[in-house]
Each structure stands twice: as C-alpha cells, then as structure tokens.
Design goal:
- The complex is a heterodimer of chains A (about 290) and B (about 325).
- Chain A is globular.
- Chain A has helices at about 1-25, 25-30, 45-55, 280-285, and strands at about 60, 65, 80-85, 90-95, 105-110, 115-120, 125-135, 140-145, 175, 185-190, 210-220, 220-230, 240-245, 255-260, 265-270.
- Chain A is built from four helices and 15 strands.
- Chain A has a single domain (about 35-285), classed as SoxY domain (Immunoglobulin-like, Sandwich).
- A nine-stranded mixed sheet of chain A has the order 1-8-7-4-5-12-11-14-15, with no helix packed on it.
- In chain A, strand 14 (about 255-260) and strand 15 form a beta hairpin.
- Chain A is about 15% helix and about 35% strand.
- By secondary structure, chain A is of the alpha+beta class.
- Helix content of chain B is about 40%, strand content about 20%.
- The termini of chain B are far apart.
- Chain B has a domain at about 35-255: 4-Layer Sandwich (Metallo-beta-lactamase, Chain A).
- Chain B is built from eight helices and twelve strands.
- The longest helix of chain B is centred in the first third of the chain and has 25 residues, at about 5-25.
- Chain B has a seven-stranded mixed sheet with strand order 1-2-3-4-5-6-7.
- Chain B has helices at about 5-25, 85-100, 115, 130-155, 225-235, 255-275, 280-285, 300-315; strands at about 40-45, 45-50, 65-70, 75-80, 105, 130, 165-170, 170-175, 180-185, 195-200, 205-210, 240-245.
- The chains are: A alpha+beta (about 290), B alpha/beta (about 325).
- The interface of A and B includes residues 73, 175, 189, 270 and 284 of A.
Chain lengths: ~290, ~325
C-alpha cells in the first residue's frame, strides 16, 4: 500500500521534473546532476531518496558498512549494523528497509559516540536495507545490502501479547556497559521490553518506542547527551541496541531516558565499569 | 485398495513417470519435477531413501532427508514422509515396487517440513503417528512451514497440503510382524523428537536428534535438552546401524559425538561472544573451527543458528537496570 503510493509520488515528481526542464531549459538540469542509480537496484530508492533526504547532496560510499544476513531467518528480528566510523564527523545515521510498509527504521545522532549502531528489525519482504551517514558538511554517504526474506515480519502480532502480564513489564530495561577501549569508546548494549507494534494488525494500535537518549553521569550529576536514537515501527519487538559511546572521564554511570508514542516513559541507570588496561579491553571485544 | 486397483494405480504411475521422463527430455529445467527415489536396503526388511546433505533448494526439491520403511509381515512401516506431496507419492510408488503389502503405519519424528509434508501420500491408507508435541507443533506451525517451503522449492510443492498426524504415540514398544519397534520420545532438537529403534534388526532411526556430516539445524532447538537427548541415544544398547534424518548412515555412534561436539561449540561460542560485547551481526561472521569444515551447509546453517539462539542468550545475560 505504501509502495503503490510512493511509486505514484515518484511518477508525479518525474512529471514535475520534466515540466521544469521544459520550462527552464536544459542548462538548469545540467546544473543539478542526478544521483547515480542505487547500486542495489532497489525499485523504491528514488522515491525514498526524495522523502528522506530531500535536496541534500548524496553519494554511494562503501565507507559506510551495512551488515545484515543475506537470508532473514526470523523476519521479526533481523540483525543489522551500520558502521560509518571510517567517515569523519558523522552527525547522523539513518537506516532504511526499502520495501517495508514503514521504510524508515531509525535516525541515530551519535554526537561524540562512534558512528556505528546495531539493532534488530522487522522485514516485511525481501528488500534492500540502506544505511546512510550524514557528515558535518551536509553530505549523505549511502550504502546497503540485500536481505532475502519469507515475509510478514511487520504485519505479525507481537509475541508479547501472548503473555497475560505483558503490560506489567513494558519499559523494563536490561543493559550492560563494557569497559572503555583504547580509542575511548565503551560498548553499551541495551534491551527494552516493549511490543514495538507497527499498528498494521487490525485492532492493535501502533505502539513503539520513539526516542532513547543516553547521558553520562558523574560526581557532578547528569552530563551532556552522549547519543540519541529516534526509533520507528520497524525496530523489533523488545528492541536491542548496541552503541559505542565516549563517556567523559570520571563518569560513573550512564542514564537512559526515552519515551514511546503513547507517552510511556523509559528510564534506567547503567553502571559504568572502571576502565581496564587497554590490551585486555581490546581483547575482550575480540578486536 | 484391492489388488486390481493397486495394479491399475501402479500402471498409471508407471505411465506417468514414463511420460514425465519423455517430457523432461524436451522441457529441460522447466519439466516435471521428479525426485527419482530409489530404496536402498540397509538391513533385513529395511530400506532407506538417501537424501543429500544440502539445504532445501529448487534443484533438490527438498530431498535432504533419509526417509525409510520396514517391510513386516503385518504391513509396511513408514518412517518420515519427505518435504512434499510429490516426494510422498514417489516414495509410496517405490515401496510398492518392493512389496505388495499395504502401509500399516507412518511415523513422523518432528514438525520440520521434510518429515511430514509428504504425509498426504500415506494418510488415506494408514494412521500417521507422532508424539503429542509434534502433533501440536504441526497444528500450530504447519501452514506457515508449508508456505515457506513453497517459497524455497517452488513447483516441487505443487498440491502439497498439511496433514496433521492423527495418532498420538508415547514411549512404548510396538510389534509389527516379527519386528519389535521401541518408540523413544526425546526433545531438544524440537519440543518433541521421536526416535525409533528396531530391536529386531538393531537399526536406530534417530530422527533429527543426530546429524551426520551435515550441520545440525536449530530453529526449534533447546541446546541443553538436546545434549541430554544425545546422552540417551549414546546409552542405547544393541544399535548396529544409526540412521540420522540428515547425513550419513553409519554402523557406529560416531555422529552422536559429532552432533554433541557441534552443539557444545556453538553454544559456548555464542555465549562467549555475547559476554565479550559482540553484536549479533559480528557473531554471524565468527570463524568456525577446522574440524567442522566437512559438515554440509556449514556457514549458512551456523548463521541460522545465530538467529535462533542469540536473542535468548543475550536476554539471559543482560542485567536488569531499572
């Protein structure tokens, strides 16, 4: 349904562009060269590019590494990771599952954190999964992978609702921070109990986490925001995120605050382990 | 079925197979799908249809299992029915070429597609028996499993519909003719795994609990329970031949150890990776020790196992913080 609408939108835009060209003449078109085609050949890419990136400059760039299995074993929880740490000054990362009814998965604002995020997502059908990183100069760097899938991940009811006491557990957070590595980044993994429902199943309203913010906490109280995730319908039920943060020296804990689209509040404090000697920390992360 | 109608049916089947082979000569890859099942005798009265050690593909039509039958004085005992109606029908026709005896009972070891989706060919003739947990699993997940098989092997599935086994069985010893069959309820590979031990011949049909030369599959696995099931198989006396559902038939229990080795390594590796802070996408690419490199579908099956096992290990390892 979203797909058909977007294709119609794309066609309209094509028509508008044609009219523009015929009015302004060929020179105007030459001044704004079109993007190269999506290397993955995703049929939705042109429409999504307009919708999510507007007029911003964009290039396909292998320095953005998108990881996901070629075959989705569980379409309700397909692991994806976007690593743009090879790029300087990344200010925002976007994940898009092109053929999902809701293509936009999340927007990540790493602030000083490493430009990398991993999570699990629902996939409705075989699709390209794109990762885009915006550098400080305003350019979007894009890459992606194809994921084959049996389908239905977005329109399946959450398993959560099979448990009679699920509502008592919404917002529970499990999390762990690992000691900082040599480059100063410390891995944070967090899991939030939440149906994260898409609203596609009749009679079940959309109910998902919209934002999660992590701050450092030290002797002087709460510190600056270290990173923020704006997450959307495709993120899996009971979402899990892996982030690589840079807590300032002296931080003793991380505070997580967030909310879902029905105003539910998420709050937790995650203790930070003392830094361990460099070599041991790097080994423990298998790097 | 009367002998005459049986004869008619075999003639029709033979004609169909002949027409099929003639057609396949001209139609090439688009021709009719034929598994070409050949029963291989492995013990007195006992035959196996040996499948490949691959994953389900449109080339192999899902023929990746070792279905079997035993010809007893009381009729034919069928063990597993294959991944599609066509497989079941070819299997039934191949059994008829070995014996005129009717099928007396069909056993299905678990809810995975290659065990039960050929049951249409046997259900009209005799009860289809399975553990209660398998029957419940097929009732709940069967349609979804069948749909996914249509996606994976395509036209081979034509006409296949889910048959829910109609006879629950439990741990017991049953006698057909002079074959004493011990039904052994296990669990761990799935929630209910039926192994059948023919005390008369010493053949153990281990079902999905033992894999041999083929990477074990884990979509419904509980590794700790599975390891206990392997202990139970290891403790069985009198096994002269072990038939795993996937992989090689062997006169020893070497593949019980191989399956245990794989599951132990898999579980320990994923736990260590979670503990070290790796993400699930990193875990998909972890190196696999050389001793496993001979197992079929190694990397793909390992990745599937990460998808099956990782979320639970992760959930159990992360402390509550609010």
């Amino acid at each position: 349904m979203g797909g058909a609408f977007m294709i119609a939108g794309g066609a309209l835009r094509g028509l508008a562009a044609l009219m523009l060209v015929s009015i302004a003449g060929p020179s105007a078109a030459a001044a704004d060269p079109p993007d190269p085609p999506d290397p993955l050949g995703s049929v939705m890419w042109e429409a999504l590019r307009d919708q999510y990136f507007g007029d911003a400059p964009l290039r396909f760039d292998d320095r953005v590494k998108v990881s996901a299995p070629a075959d989705a074993e569980d379409t309700r929880a397909v692991p994806i990771a976007i690593d743009a740490s090879a790029l300087p000054d990344v200010v925002e990362i976007v994940a898009i599952a092109d053929l999902n009814p809701f293509p936009l998965v999340l927007r990540y604002h790493p602030h000083g954190a490493a430009a990398t995020i991993a999570t699990r997502i629902k996939i409705q059908q075989a699709t390209a999964v794109h990762g885009a990183a915006r550098t400080a100069d305003g350019v979007w760097h894009v890459s992606g992978v194809l994921v084959d899938a049996a389908g239905g991940g977005c329109s399946a009811p959450p398993a959560t609702y099979a448990q009679t006491d699920w509502a008592d557990h919404v917002g529970e957070v499990q999390a762990r921070a690992w000691p900082a590595r040599a480059d100063g980044t410390a891995r944070l993994r967090l899991r939030v109990r939440h149906p994260n429902d898409t609203g596609l199943v009749a009679g079940i309203p959309a109910y998902f986490i919209e934002t999660l913010s992590v701050r450092a906490h030290g002797a002087a109280g709460p510190g600056p925001e270290l990173a923020r995730i704006d997450s959307l319908e495709p993120v899996s039920e009971d979402p899990v995120f892996s982030l690589d943060l840079r807590p300032p020296p002296g931080s003793t804990a991380l505070t997580l605050s967030g909310r879902d689209n029905q105003g539910g509040v998420i709050a937790a404090t995650i203790p930070l382990p003392a830094p361990v000697p460099t070599a041991a920390a790097d080994r423990s992360l298998g790097q | 079925m009367t002998p005459r109608s049986r004869l008619l049916k075999s003639l029709l089947l033979a004609a169909g197979v002949l027409a099929g082979s003639l057609l396949s000569g001209t139609a090439g890859a688009q021709g009719p799908r034929i598994y070409g099942l050949t029963p291989k005798p492995i013990a007195p009265d006992t035959y196996v249809f040996e499948g490949s050690t691959e994953h389900f593909t449109r080339d192999n039509g899902g023929n990746i299992l070792n279905a079997a039958f035993i010809v007893t004085a009381d009729g034919v005992i069928v063990i597993q029915t294959g991944p599609s109606r066509r497989y079941g029908e070819e299997m039934r026709a191949a059994i008829r070429r070995v014996t005129d005896k009717p099928v007396r009972k069909t056993y299905i070891s678990n809810l995975h597609p290659d065990y039960f989706l050929g049951a249409q060919a046997f259900a009209p003739e005799a009860p289809v028996a399975a553990l209660p947990g398998t029957i419940a699993g097929i009732r709940e997940e069967g349609p979804g499993i069948a749909e996914n098989m249509y996606r994976m092997i395509g036209d081979w599935m034509r006409g296949t519909e889910v048959v829910i086994p109609d006879e629950p069985v439990f741990g017991s010893t049953v006698v057909f003719g002079d074959h004493r069959l011990r039904l052994i309820p296990l669990h761990g590979h799935t929630a209910a795994d039926l192994a059948l031990f023919d005390e008369t011949t010493g053949v153990l049909f281990a079902g999905g609990v033992v894999f041999c030369g083929r990477t074990p599959t884990t979509p419904h696995a509980d590794v700790a329970d599975w390891l206990k099931a392997l202990d139970a198989v290891e403790a069985l006396d009198g096994v002269r031949l072990l038939v795993p559902n996937h992989g090689h038939i062997r006169p020893d229990k070497a593949c019980v150890a191989q399956t245990r080795d794989w599951l132990t390594w898999l579980d320990a590796t994923l736990r260590a990776a979670v503990e070290a802070g790796l993400d699930m996408t990193d875990a998909l690419e972890l190196p696999i020790p050389e001793r496993f490199h001979g197992l079929g579908v190694l990397r793909a099956e390992y990745r599937r196992s990460v998808a099956h096992l990782w979320p639970r290990i992760e959930r159990e390892s992360l402390p509550r913080v609010n």
